[in-house]
Amino acid sequence: MVAAIALVTHALLAQIMVVDGVAGWIGGQASMLRWGLLAPVALVALAVLIAAPRGGRLRLSCITAGLILAFWAPDPLVTGFGLLTAIMLAAFCADAQPLLLGAAPALILEAIGAAIIAQHGLIASVSAAACLVLAALLAPLGALFALRAHDFTGLARGFVLGLFGVALGGVGLGLASVTLIASAGAALIAGGLLLIEQRLTETAGHIALDWLGGLARGMPELSFVLLALMLGVSVLPPGPAFDLLVLIAQALGPAPSLSAGAFFLGTALWAALSSVAALRGFALVALGRPRSLRAAAAEDQRDRLWIAMASLAAAMLLLGLIVVPDRLVVILMTSCCAVLVALLVASVRKRRLLELPHWTEGFAKPPLWLPFDDPKTQMTATGFAAITLGVGVSLPGWLRDQSNVVRLWLRTVLAP
Amino acid sequence: MSLLAALLAELIGLVLIALAMLIPPALITFWSGWRAGLGWRGITQPLREWRWLWQQPRLESDFASPLARLWPAIALAATLMAAALVPSFAKNIWTGVPSLAFWVIGLLALARMARLLATLDAGQGARGLAAALAARSFWMVQTILLIGTLAAASAVGSISLGTGLPLGGAGLNRLVLLLALAAAIVGLANDQSAPEGDLAGPDLAMLRLEARLRPVILLLLVFALFAPLWLATANRPSSWPLGVLGFWLRWGLGTLAIAVAPRGAWRASLIAMLLIGLAVVMVLPR
Predict the structure, then answer these.
(1) B264 backbone φψ class: left, alpha, beta (φ>0; ψ -120 to 50)
(2) Using the beta-carbon criterion (under 8 Å), do B69 and A389 form an inter-chain contact?
(3) Is the backbone of residue A121 left (phi > 0), alpha (psi -120 to 50) or beta?
(4) CB A147 within 8 A of CB A276
(5) Helix (H, G, I), strand (E, B) or coil at B56
(6) Is A180 at the interface with chain B, CB within 8 A?
(7) How many contacts does A have with B, using Cβ atoms within 8 A?
(8) Residue A216 sits at the chain B interface (C-beta within 8 Å)
């Protein structure tokens, strides 16, 4: 608590001393980029405050105030100090984790953006190129981490890192819209996933992806929230991540620079990998069979935590629809798609259902205490990631396989 | 007048895609029916099978989620939207949307995602394994297409589909496009479709239709990106016959290339496309 008060006091004093009074703090330092970066973080902060237990709200409010003030720091060093203090505070406050993970990318981007805008000439172009190269590495790396994550925290960290990379690329390209959308997506996905993790800790007893499954039967509302968040972060139309891809491609144009081209290559990998990571994050948690009796008995609860989660998921969906380029076409296409889905579902809705004994893949009948069958044959999150990434294939073995493929192909095609 | 022409071109394009989707299974059933002495009856067999399947009762797994009935419909709807957007025999059907390639790729990805979710919904082991393998194919093909779009945009100078080969440009651009076309064809040849899950009746019919449509759309997309030859213009009906002829030529050549492309080389095609993408940003004259 003392540290939080110190942080807030420090940030306020720094602002008032360096900038020209309170009026200068409100008017002079504020910019569209800062407001844009701050808005989703403020939304996440609000959601976290709503979801927090009564005893921890004061502490969370202090951390929130410190983070928000760090956005208006007069120089990147003060921003960094604010971030560092917030990290230290959050280490002792589990409820603040969603807020910190959501705010960190925005704070770092704000500092980097301010540092780059202040440069001119060669230094500015070199820093922009460095941002793009770093982004080309960070974006697919984050998606890869998300694809290999073992729990919701890992999933959130991976998605946030990927989106932070994309936002950094936006800074390098000079595209404020990309930076803002990616930063907002990172804040929303971090807040949403970590709040879901809180709920699952209480109800299902597990947060490891390998121990979850089948939640859509008992917790359909939580599954919808998870689906909305995952659709937002996967590069599918009309989600915000898809909008990012289109905006970046439109900005690249013909004959991009080397660093911009490398960034697009990284973005392509990020897009493909994060889609599969989102698929894994939803399908292996919400679909299939529950892996424990407690998870099978878990039910939705309409409380403050649910309101917080649902508001973040709704914000994610809205973000995709608001910022999309070619809005008229998107509305037309989304409407056509929705009408088609409704027609197809309506045409098969009243069709008779076949009653068949279920297929247990040769395994014995499950014990009575497992009402949803024995889930040991079910694909786990770890197995899914390993197969999807082709882990376990050695390089010499792969080279041998590929040379055999080419040799056989040539023999087939060129044989008389 | 131009709106009417665009609508007509859209309809003709959809009919051509439907025909291209039906011809391979029709030829196979015709050939086997002919050999069995059934004569011409085999030609309409795929359509009759699909209609029969549509009329059958549904099957729902004991473990299916409440969302299970949505996945096939989403997959088919997204694929139909992609079929309506991709330039089949004429370009400029949907003018004013420069990011059309990304929309087609995105809608096909949405369809693939819905299909994978339908497969994973029942939570069965063998299906899950097949879905994981299909997911691997999914992200590889997605990466190949997205990097290919960058290569085409850099070589041609526009991200609009069906913009045309840079005939007046450097020969290097054409070489890049041909290499990208080859890598994409190999990628498509190794594209694994997710299995159909525990479904029957109309759900299965929708997924089967989606599975038949997707390769045709992907082939048209790849040609529209890298070699948009013999494409008509939607607003000029006099160019349509050439466009229809070009459609069959592109489809025939693409199908043949996919048939002879090496199987099991999906990683190689991904690496090749990554190298092409790097070459595009490093070598192409700017």
Answers:
(1) left
(2) no
(3) left
(4) yes
(5) coil
(6) no
(7) 253
(8) yes
Q: Point out the residue among B142, B200, B280 whose CB comes nearest to the CB of A272.
A: B142
Torsions phi, psi for B233 (to 5 deg): -110, 130
Peptide bond into A140 cis (omega under 30): no
- Which residue in A194, A182, A232 sits closest to A98, CA to CA? A194
- Using CB atoms, pick whichever of A217, A282, A326 lies closest to residue B99: A326
Alpha-carbon distance of A198 to A156, in angstroms, equals: 13
Around Cβ A121, how many Cβ atoms within 10 Å? 7
Q: H-helix or E-strand containing A88?
A: helix A76-91
Which amino acid is it at B240?
A: W
CB atoms within 10 A of CB A36: 18
As a whole number of angstroms, the distance between CA A181 and CA A163 comes to: 9
Looking at residue B153, what is its pLDDT?
A: 81
Q: How far apart are CA B215 and CA B222, in angstroms?
A: 10
Q: What percent of chain B has pLDDT over 70?
A: 90
List CB contacts (< 8 A) between A352 and chain B.
57-58
Nearest CA in chain A to B140: A272
Q: What would the two tokens of residue A44 be?
A: 């996440």
Strands B58-59 and A353-354: parallel
- Token pair recorded at residue A15: 């602002």
A326 close to B (CB below 8 A): yes
The shortest CB-CB distance from B158 to any of A216, A254, A352 is to: A254
DSSP class of residue B109? H
Please name the residues in contact with B131: beta carbons below 8 A apart, sequence gap of 6 or more: A283, A379, A384, B116, B119, B120, B194, B195
Residue B196 tokens read as 């159909």
Cα–Cα distance, A95 to A107 (Å, whole number): 19
CB B270 within 8 A of CB B140: yes
What pLDDT was estimated at residue B2? 76
- What ipTM does this complex have? 0.90
Helix (H/G/I), strand (E/B), else coil: B263? coil
The pTM of the full predicted model, rounded to 2 decimals, is 0.87
CA B85/CA B82 separation, integer angstroms? 5
Beta bridge partners of A185: none
pLDDT at A45: 87
Encode A401-413: b = buried (16+ Cβ within 10 Å), e = exposed.
Answer: ebeebeeebeeee
* CB neighbour class for A325 (10 Å; exposed up to 12, middle 13-18, buried from 19): middle
- pLDDT at residue number B16: 93
- pLDDT below 70 — which residues of chain A? 1-32, 72-80, 83, 86, 89-90, 117-118, 254-255, 324-328, 330, 355-376, 391-394, 416
CA A34 to the chain's CA centroid:
21
Which pLDDT score is estimated for B95? Answer: 54
Distances (CA, A) of B153 to A175, A178, B91: 19, 20, 16
Positions in chain B short of pLDDT 50: 167-168
CA gap A172, B143 in Å, rounded: 22
Q: What is the DSSP letter of A55?
A: G
Contact between B209 and B82 (Cβ < 8 Å): no
Interatomic CA distance for residues B178 and B207, integer angstroms = 32
Task: Report how far residue A34's alpha carbon sits from residue A156's, in angstroms, rounded to the nearest whole number.
Answer: 23
What the block records as the tokens of A339 is 């009408």
For residue B263, give Cα distances in angstroms to A53, B250, B259. 57, 21, 9
User: Closest by alpha carbon to A100, among A185, A157, A17, A154?
Assistant: A157
Q: Which residue has the tokens 């044959």?
A: A377
Distance CA B254, CA B236 (A): 26
